[in-house]
Amino acid sequence: MELVSLEPGEGQSIAFSESIEDDVRVKPNDGTLTIAAGSESTTYGLGTISYERDGTHLAYQGGGLWESTDDGTLLHSAPNVDVITDENQVTNLQVHVTNLQSTERRGQDFTVRSAGTNTSTDSLPEELPPGKMEITIQSSYYDAWAAYFAEQKDIEVGDDGGDVGTVSIDHTNERMQLVIDVPYEFEIDAGITSPPSGANIEINNNVDMEAYNSATPDEDVDDLEIRFADDVVINHNTQIDADIIIDGELTLDQSNAEINGDIYCVGESADCLTINSGAHYGEMHTTDIELTPLSSTLEIDRQQERITSTENDNENTEAIDEDGRLTGNTITTPGEYYLAEISSDDTLKVDLEDGGEVDILVDVDIVFDEEVTLDSENGHQVNLYMTGDSLTVRNDVNIHENSDKDATNFWILSRPGSDISFESGGTTFVGVVYAGNADVEPPARVTFNNNVEFYGGLVASVESVDQNIDFYYDAALIEESSGGGAKRTVTDTTFLQVTVTDILVDGD
After folding, report:
1. What CA–CA distance (Å, rounded) separates 98 from 95?
2. How is residue 162 annotated by DSSP?
3. Which H or E run contains 404?
4. Exposure of 282 by Cβ count < 10 A (0-12 exposed, 13-18 middle, 19+ buried)?
5. pLDDT by residue for the chain (508 residues), tens digit each?
6. What are the Cα distances from residue 499, in Å, to 48, 94, 119?
7. DSSP label at 144?
8. CA-CA distance, 67 to 144, in Å (whole number)?
9. Locate the DUF7305 domain: which residues (predicted)?
10. Beta carbons within 8 Å of 302's beta carbon, 6+ residues apart
């Protein structure tokens, strides 16, 4: 019985022989489906049309045909709830709810008629926010609902769950719940995105900022954009070849301070530039762009739930000992890894012969005193999720076999409020550092100190850029969005479509 296919006003008569009519029941209030996303939640009634005789119990509910037996419930035709995935990420959730409108009835012929179908999410967003989205079903057929979802790709029953979702079962209350991980899209569409910190930003002495594209290294790139949400002072011998978006005051304060690009002042006035010394070559504009990025807390918390012990999800643990410490050996197998820390004596090496993804949860601080070598020729992705308070870079990161300075394959996600420093010594870093914060979270603070080359993208509140700093934005990042570092197209969004069909059930 495909009730959702009925056109508005169209009816379908259902007649039963006298021998079985007393075994047929319509229960409009039997079962509910609840969808929760972000801070919103909506509950829909399901209802059932059931037949029960001689131990056989069949029921229509939620678009599915179910059979109840002594050993549980079975699914004969699928319900109208679809989880659509692509590359281990949810792209669409389609829920077609059949709302039976009737009084409870038994033992007579009846007509089902569509009162109309509307596409509505009520208070639910059509584009789901990152995080966890829940579908909870309370029903006599809860275990068959659970089995149906568990058959979907990358969805599993149990605490560990699958890459896309986890099913849990509450036998006492005849309830199942599907928790879906909605992808995180950390877009790096500016070289620097510096959220508000309330402090002035100092850019001092021999600093250059420009763009390149690791995907097309032979082409010139002139579309660098830098975003500051605080006052910025630019001092001696600094050249910035970029458009600047600023929610604050921008001051060129000393000789040879130069900006080659347009300046966009957040607000109604384009008067946000003061030139005491130096030069600006470009135009002044106003903009209403939002400079607050997505918080990194969401993804770090999710990964901390997934990677919670030293029992690393891989086939080769020679690179990490039983205490969660690096041994100096190379990580050669994709998977999820747990590290108690990366300290000054540790060496991180990754070389995946066949490519793949490595997710590493670092449960305290990170110090890169030794070179970090990632064999970029094999097309792998390495993501570090840091739960500690500080990231210190004192040696080269991701330059091994990486002549094009591909920054898309290495991401570090750091918590809001953390201290991030790139320290002197001829350090070169290639990758992304993401430490976005929500309005209620403290900003991460970044300092660049003497003789540092940075290739990639940065999302964190800049405190100071001091002495002989070269910052190069990898424009290839604008074509790659990150769900915890995994390469995905910028257009990837998880959409929710809820269609409600009201079905009137009348006695003949």
Report:
1. 10
2. -
3. none
4. middle
5. 454 444 444 445 454 444 455 577 788 888 899 999 877 888 888 888 888 777 778 888 888 888 887 777 788 888 888 888 776 677 888 888 777 776 666 656 566 666 666 555 566 777 787 778 899 999 988 988 998 998 888 888 877 667 788 899 999 999 999 998 886 778 888 999 999 999 999 999 999 999 999 999 988 888 789 999 999 999 999 999 999 999 999 999 998 999 999 999 999 999 999 999 999 999 999 999 988 888 898 888 878 877 865 455 555 568 888 778 888 888 888 888 888 888 888 889 998 877 788 899 998 889 999 999 887 555 688 999 999 999 999 999 999 888 899 999 999 999 999 999 999 778 999 999 999 998 899 999 999 999 999 999 999 999 999 999 999 999 999 865 444 433 433 345 788 888 877 777 766 5
6. 18, 8, 4
7. H
8. 9
9. 304-478
10. 131, 132, 181, 184, 484
**Count of beta carbons in the 10 Å neighbourhood of residue 399:** 18
Q: 150 is written with which tokens?
A: 């568990």
Residue corresponding to tokens 């969808």: 35
Residue type at 416?
A: P
Span 100-131, pLDDT tens digits: 776 666 656 566 666 666 555 566 777 787 77
Instruction: Name the amino acid, one letter, at 324.
Output: G
> Encoding tokens for residue 161?
């769950």
Residue type, 216: T
User: Which residue in this structure is represented by tokens 């070849």?
Assistant: 241
DSSP per position, 374-387: E-GGG-EEEEEEE-
For 256, 321, 330, 370, 384, the CA distances from 318, given in Å and listed in that order, are 52, 7, 8, 19, 19
For residues 339 and 363, is the Cβ–Cβ distance under 8 A?
A: yes
Among 474, 356, 353, 367, smallest CA distance to 419 is for 367
Q: Are strands 32-37 and 131-138 parallel, antiparallel or unpaired?
A: antiparallel
Residue 334 near residue 357, CB atoms below 8 Å: yes
